[in-house]
Amino acid sequence: MKISTRFSLNFNNALLKKILLFNVFLLFSVTVHAQCPGTSQPFDWTLVTPTPWDETIATQASYTTTSCSDPTTLTFTLQDPDSVLNNASTGVADPRYQITMNNPNAGEEVSFTINFTTPSVLSTFRVDDIDNNGDFDDNVSFIATIEGANVPLTLTGAGAVPSFNIVGQTADGQTNNTNSTDDNGAVIVNSGTQAIDRLIITYTAGIDRTGGQFIWLSGDYSICCPEPVNSDDDGIDDLTDLDDDNDGILDINEYEIIDCTNQDVPVFGAAQGPNSYFGSDVNNPTVGDSYLYNSVYPGVDAIVTIVFSNDTDILELDVTSTGVDDFFQPQIDHATGTSYTEFRIDFVVSGTTTPAPLSDYTLTAIDNDVFEFVTFANGYTGDVLIDSTSNEVLYTGNPANVGGFDVGYVSDGTFITGVAANTPQYQAAATYSNVSSVSFRFGDTSSNTSNHSIALEPCVPEDNWISDPDFYSEIDTDGDGIPNHLDSDSDNDGCDDVLESGGNDPDGDGIIGEAPYSYDSDGLVTETNVTGGYDGVTGDEIIATQVNVDATLLQDKNVTEGDATTFTISSATAENTTTFAAGVPDYTVPPATDSSGNIGYQWQENGVDLTDTGVYSGTNTITLAISDVSGLDGNTYNLIVTHRDNVCIDIQNSAVLTVDPLPEIDAVNDDFSGTPVDSAAGGTTASVF
To answer: Is beta strand 27-31 parallel, antiparallel or unpaired with respect to 212-217?
Structure first.
């Protein structure tokens, strides 16, 4: 049998979750403040409530800092699914946390999963006393990720007697360290300058062990207080800002409307789960526990974790006897009018813990009636949607909407029986784009026992709304990793969105108007030369267009006075595409389309636009025709090539016309007198006598 236990720790702005399970003697410390974007506060185990924390008395403890703009609560939960825990408690004299575990067998392992909801840099993370005395053999490995992608870690030995070998991201105990309170056998783990959102620490027993092995958790680290994201440096954080890149296009116009018929539809019915996951008890839902739902949609499982709760009890994780079976429906006995329970759903590749491919998910709180409330984790696309402002009221409670859950809604007190399609006014919905994890919180301002319900099927709640809403998804048209609402050139065709949408950008920096800039409270650009903005989009912003001109035939020429002539280029072709490879438009036809018919031509004479009048014709075609060049000597004829679908295309080529006079003719007297005509008397135009 392989024993697997997990320790989960969430840096959440307002939440740090620890599930402490381990069976070695380890001492570790985390210092994430080295690269903190905001302030930080050193952690102190003596401030944990209750103090001292003993798992035989309380399975949950908490810690609240006040150094951030909002109070930050860290919640620690002890989990022991395999009943191998012997003792765990905080030490008052020595402010550390000790866990003792007995009699592990070779190959059995335990692991810490540390989730950082706010990505943080890992610096001087320390695990102590990795050793081998012949009776036991410690092996500790580390894996870090950011949005599911691996982040390389660096492991270095520390202390007087490092007693292990380091191979890659694994430390293998080699010698015995008898002193558990010094730095001997310590390994330091760093992620360089790369932020991570998950760290997995796995301990494996190298041999059978009779007796105890221990861990110590040190207080020598700091909690980061993240700063609000302000992508365009306009002083308005992205959560409030209606134009995150200052291009004169509202963010909502740079999203796409979700096509529900093509949307992933996760189903949380009885056929999918909940199932026990790493020893969790489905009949006794506990904070820190995770539960597995199999095949919520093809190839994808879901792991539901109870991240935090200060409610009295979670009576049932997912009620199936009432409501809609496909929805996730926890029944919660709420302790107070401000208490809440937080859930996180991680979508993973079926049968693995690998994050599922990024997708869009619409979370809709169904039947949010009586005095129930729901708050959604920040990061949703667009706004949280409700159907009736009289039945759903903006929730402003504390602490359920702090720590990264700024927006939520509470019912007006009206009771509606059951989860019915004819009660859409009790819905609140948020859409998350390109994610593999979503989080939300449930509470009740009257501290009732409540049946909550979350649907992840956008088309079902959409069909039941009084006024059908549009659900928006964040998009990245050119696939360069920058979503359109942050990308100054969404189709990477060399023409900024501000111009393709009809806005003015005199200084060419991709921001509507010109510096110096001012902004209103919604983050919209005001003041200097801000024209043509915030009036929608043209569609050209997401269709890449190129024009190729071969001007080989456009050459300077000499033409005799009175003659006609033409100026022309060899060819002009254009392609439109919505296909991209790593951010680069693919103009190959197909998949691109020939748009040469949308090319514009304008001939100029000495910089002045010509029209089809007088001696000129073809002034808006590939070839300019001049019927008589008399009087046009030295003029420059310039062709400007443009395209209807890309206002930035302006390709110019020119040639100079030189007009030669008519040739001189020698006149000869036709009376055969032998006297030549005097050129001074008339030259080539004199009468011949």
So the answer is: parallel
The answer to whether 203 and 20 are in contact (CB under 8 A) is: no
Bond prior to 52 in cis (omega within 30° of 0)? yes
CA atoms within 13 A on the CB side of 623: 8
**Confidence band (pLDDT; 50, 70, 90) for 575?**
very high
Q: Which two tokens stand for residue 586?
A: 């693919």
Under a CB-based contact definition with an 8 Å cutoff, are residues 497 and 487 in contact? yes
3-state helix, strand, coil in the chain (%, to 5): 5, 40, 55
How many CB atoms are located within 10 Å of the residue 267 CB? 17
Rounded distance between C-alpha atoms, residue 470 and residue 259, angstroms: 9
Rounded Cα gap, residues 503 and 231, in angstroms: 20
Tokens of 177: 């360290």
Indicate the pLDDT class of residue 573, thresholds 50, 70 and 90: very high
Query: What's the CA gap between 430 and 158, in Å, rounded?
Result: 47
Question: Can you count the helices (H) and strands (E) in the chain?
Answer: 2, 51
- Give the three-state DSSP class for 2: coil
Strand-pair partners of 325: none
CB neighbourhood size of 1 (10 A) = 7
Closest CA to 223 of 85, 102, 44: 44
> What is the average pLDDT value for the chain, to the nearest integer?
78
Tokens 């985390």 found at: 30
Residue 574 forms beta bridges with which residues?
Answer: 547
Helix (H/G/I), strand (E/B), else coil: 158: strand
Extract the tokens encoding 80: 């022991």
- Cα–Cα distance for residue pair 125/187, rounded to 1 Å: 8
Cβ–Cβ contacts within 10 Å for residue 534, how many? 17
Please tell me whether the peptide bond between 399 and the residue prior to it is cis, using omega within 30 degrees of 0: yes
| Closest alpha carbon to 689 in 664, 669, 659, 666 | 669
Tokens of 634: 């030295």
